[in-house]
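Fig. S4 source data, part A: sequence.
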Amino acid sequence: MTKHKFSGTGVALITPFKSNKEIDYQSLEKIINHVIDNGIDYIVTLGTTGETPTLSPAEKQEVARFTVQTVAQRTPIVVGIGSNNTAETINAIRNFDLQGIDGILSITPYYNKPNQEGIYQHYKAIGEASPLPVIAYNVPGRTGVNMTAETTLRIAADCPNIVAIKEASGNLTQIMQILQNRPEHFLVLSGDDSLTYPMMALGADGVISVAAQAVPKTFSDMVHFALDGEFAAARQNHYQVLDLMEALFADGSPAGVKTALHLSGLCENELRLPLVPVNEKVFKLIQHLVNVKH
């Protein structure tokens, strides 16, 4: 099964809100227990799925503290800390209470579009400053810049504290170049739920997943089957949830997964602006697919 504490299925947690838009810690506790009880391998808090751009620094720290307390050492915990300002990211890591946290997920700089050398130097500086291992996160659809396979491999070779890449480029050729040439210690994790199965067939080590929050057992079983080389069983699970995975991203994320969790009775269907709930057509599609899965 899992070889490393960040291999297998990591779940990118939402931040549930009440109708008054305050953080709903009771629902957060339910969701954490739900995914752990259904076999996921580790928790990722305060990523994009957690709507971190709309959380204050104090809220981020409280969410992390509550998550550590609720997980109670049942699984590892990764916390998202990143920005498009390298010095600010390092400062945020140094000032964050990391007690009970096992790793940091840090996104490639967005909006200001650094070149490949700038991305390399950004991660090199973060890796040297962080007291915890770092998972780099390449998601060009959100950042506006792609970290190439060459840059990822350079970081993997030169920065021992950067231990993994969450790769969400959607480019299988790029992914295969990383998998083929990475150092043995460096993990490659899917950042696209629907590509997790094909990426693991090519040698990836797991996923940091949004959809696994809605269907944790089916998804984590798929990943564990793949880790064990049981690809026929993994493929069956993959196709069982493929339509749902697509629907969860059809009108924005985390709006889709919040809909699914709301329909499962785990949280309210509340987001903070500028995000809003999914449209009626997508809501009905997710409703149908959640009922099918249950």
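Fig. S4 source data, part B ends here. The mean pLDDT is 97.
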